[in-house]
Amino acid sequence: MKKLPMRDYPEELRKEKYGLFGTVEENACGVIAVHNILLPYETPPFAEMIKFFSRHMAAFFGRMGTRLFPLLRYLGKYGKTERVKKGKAYDAVLGVIVYLNRFFIPVGLHYFAGRAEKIGKYRFYNMCRGSEDLLLSPKEAREKLKTVRYVKKYRAVSPLFFGFTDDQTKFAKENEE
Q: How many Å apart are CA 35 and CA 156, to the nearest integer?
């Protein structure tokens, strides 16, 4: 059965705990991003992924979402991740927004993912609350996020992008420049 990209959490999982103090609805965007990157793979059901990430990757007991480096290691089981390099093709990209408080201390992260559709263009899912699926380059995604009200309000750092290549979809290999 073909997996579909997720834009939001399944209704029955929204109020589930994520870490000790968080909920899926508030803090599990990293799990959605991983699900969307790994669409071509046989992965555990989404509810099991939530439990695994909650137990092993929740940041500050679930209040700040998912820790970045364990998430990247998890993706590493399926392919190679690296910071996005200009002119390089990837099968998918992971975007990470870091939110800062008034003292410029990180207080949260938001993850979103895009699957490659054209060279340098990715279909982004769950980029920001209520956003449609957008076909953008990482640079265009960065510009689009600058216009989002709550991204500006919370002093968000310009998103970091990590490229993901795998042997399953082979988009990157077929489209190398």
A: 24
Confidence of residue 159 (pLDDT cuts 50, 70, 90): confident
Tokens of 174: 């077929």
Cα 96 from Cα 94, distance rounded (Å): 7
Residue range 132-145, pLDDT digits in tens: 788 999 999 888 88
Structure tokens at 81: 């991740």
